[in-house]
Model the fold of this input.
Amino acid sequence: MEVQGAAISLLGKQFAVVLVSMDVVTNSGEADMAIEAMQPSFGGVPVVLMAQKEDGSPVYYGDQDLVQSLADLPVEKMPWKTYTV
Done:
C-alpha cells in the first residue's frame, strides 16, 4: 500500500507524518492501529497521522509532544513523498 508521508526532524526528534483520511484521525482505535501498522515502514520512529479539513488545515493524531511541535510548521513545507507500507 502506498501512503503520502514526510520524514521530519524537529527539536532533535525524528518522526514521520502520514496523510490519512479524517475518518482515521477521528477514531482513536483505528488511528492507534494505523500508527502501529505503519511504524515499522518508517524505521520504527514515531508516526503522527494527519488529515486535512475542507479548508486544508491539518488535524493531527499521535504523541502530543510531536503534535504540538507541528503546530507552527506549514503543511506545504513538509518533505512529502510516497512511501510503500
